[in-house]
Queue: 4 jobs
Job 1
Amino acid sequence: MSQQKSLHSICKWTFHAGKGGFTPNDMRKQWDSENLDTVKIVQIIKDKIAPRLPDNIELGYEVHYDTEINEANAQACADALIDANMTLAMITPGAHSHFAYGGIASPDKNELAAARELGLKTVDLAYGMLKKAWHKEAVPTFVLWNGSYGYDIASIGVQKMYQNMKESVAQLCKYEEEKGGELFMAIEPKPNEGHPAMMLPTVASALVFWHKLEEEFGISRNKKGINKEFGHTEMIGLDLIYDTIEEIDNNALVHMHVNSQGLNDGIILGGPGKYDIDHGVRINGINIAIAGLMRRAGGYSRWKGHDMQPRAYDNEEQSIDRVIRSILSWEACDYAAQNLDESSLLKYLENRETARAEDIMRGALVDAQKYFDKIYK
């Protein structure tokens, strides 16, 4: 069993009583908003998740400002993280909770100014009360995700929104640089939800965006890149492996959300055209290939975030178990990638013996499942 340090982060928003809508909003009554706050979730992770993980795994925590963490609870949260031997892995402005008309891209000047201010306050909190809860090596990622910046009207106004967004992010990056320039800044592409049309929907569009900020505003691309959200690529039917190659080629893989929409394991349903289901990591050939690509590129030493939701029918204990299974499933895929017969695989591909190449990947899949069974407890 490899003892190389592995960083995994758990999201505050995984822990809730139920999503509601077309599913119950009270399946996990112990986790309703009156009984569960950000600090109590850290305690749950400390008591019920950490003891069931291998010793080489270090845990981090992901939060939205200002709905999940803010000036009122940040000190207590930082103290709880330190007590739990955890660190802040990611913070993101929860603009989707406040702005319905484009956020940092909004054509409404008042909303635009308010959305920009939310981002600056998020930086302030990260460098302020939360600084003591940073990891000494893997500092937090500041993620920008596009749940608020989208549109539903076809017009020439979209170009203005795109320009607003560039100016907003450039301002944010310059502000963060003045604070110390230590955070990793990541765009999380998303093809849909919460608008019919989204800005920065793909990895490629986010990479172009960073290049434009460097060209037009002088924003260095050092520590800038992508929050690799597996499920969002699946939702639009694009290729996770090719995304990974682009991210590595641009030195832009700075954070990951290793979830799944249920595509490509032949068991869980979901995938292109479906809503954001947010299952945990699946043991499949694609994840083994991605882990292998990252190893070939020199390894990935930053956070692997588990941006996931309980099933609509899960109770509290089942939900906790899903998180543990997700973490261990990634470790299993990475183990299989590490032990893959790479030279034979590449030789088979060179000789067009693709059926034999498939056999190697299928064997790796079996190895991954056996490793999961060994470390799951």
Job 2
Amino acid sequence: MPIVSISLNDEMLTELDKLQKTMGFTGRSEAIRAGIRNFVSEERQKNELSGNLHAILLVVHNDEFDHIIAGMKHSFEDLITTQLHSKIHGNKCVELFMLDGEAEQINLITKNFQTNKKMDTVKLVTL
């Protein structure tokens, strides 16, 4: 089996260790493999979407990155029917975007948020 090395900051390592213990994984590698399987499965499902969709995109970020959210919002304003912004804890914010449009565009906005390192959490739910 090939070996892949990754670097994690202390916070991520602490979270990984918590998940390992609470979910019963025998080691960090097993927990990471489960996370990768989940990620691959989610991406495969998104790539299989087609046609006109209704979806909810949830994004959690630090409030200092509101300008990034605003830029993305303007880039996809024809796709976004509603946006809800709320401060959830300390300097963290949550954005809920109601989306209506072609699957390709919904995948594109989702990937733009997912690949932005300033975003903490990005989840897509199709309806």
Job 3
Amino acid sequence: MSDDSRPSPSAGPSAARTAAVIPAAGRGVRLGPGAPKALRALSGTPMLIHAVRAMAASRAVSLVVVVAPPDGAAEVKTLLDAHALPERTDFLVVPGGRSRQESVKLGLDALPAGHDIVLVHDAARPLVPVDTVDAVIEAVRDGAPAVVPALPLADTVKQVEPAGTPGEPEPVVATPERALLRAVQTPQGFDRATLVRAHETVTGEVTDDAGMVEQLGLTVVAVPGHEEAFKVTRPLDLVLAEAVLARRRLNDGF
């Protein structure tokens, strides 16, 4: 639950308006058969609704665009209408594409004029705290063309030579210095014009939108992420997410 007494980042008439795009067209095969990942329930509420509320919890976010499965836009619109969402935020549902990159581009295309900052957030990260969202927005307002929330790595990382057959031993070829590495989360924040240019010019498969901006030769900056902004991809992640929600209800009445 958001606290309306908390000031939004750089609040004021001159502050750039922020929109969030949530690509939610994936099937989530690692969670097993059933509903698409974004529609799986956490404490009785679909993950997508938790993710939408997480973006709308920021008073800086005035529009949330949900990119639905190509044949599921009506279902997602009905889902949003059925759940209580902040009245100060507008919501829009558009059909997505065959890939995440195509879906984000379709969400960008649907943005009305006047939103100069764009967040791109994974529907599978339903529990990102509002302070993290605000920190990303603030960094873009301070002049960064692209911002990612990120955490230091707890584990040692090895670079390997991939095996030809899954399950075979893989030779280790290097041990990167862990202090220089970060695990990147979402929402990732962008100057809108920069993100549009990246999607219009960068081709090939990418793992995140910030990587596209890197390919333009621009600097991407990292701000502190949060351990609760983890991505729900495996059944064990669902258990952890339920535990986080239970703690929030106990401590904060969330």
Job 4
Amino acid sequence: MKSLLLVFLGGGFGSVLRYIIGKYLNSTQTGIPYGTFAANIIGSLLIGIILGLAAKNDSLTQNQTLLLATGFCGGFTTFSTFAYENHVFLKSGDFTSFAIYTIASFVIGFLAVFAGMFLVR
């Protein structure tokens, strides 16, 4: 039960922070989802750091990892919003934004995870 509560609390904080970032960074004028992109990249970097620390000499407990990686990063990053925003790009015929957003999200997201793990070596 404690594990569920930790994931719940971390996810709540992550979701609220993602909402705030999206509210202030997503562009209503251009339709470009800078906030979602930023949350996903920052979350990827954070999960790399968190899981890197967890693997390094057991620097984090299982409970801390559940709270921060599964909970906070899980709530902070969002694949469903990413998928919806790509749907909007495709529906409007904006194939260039779709391609740039999708490729940049995957490539930079993966690099951010690797960078996070590298930073804690």
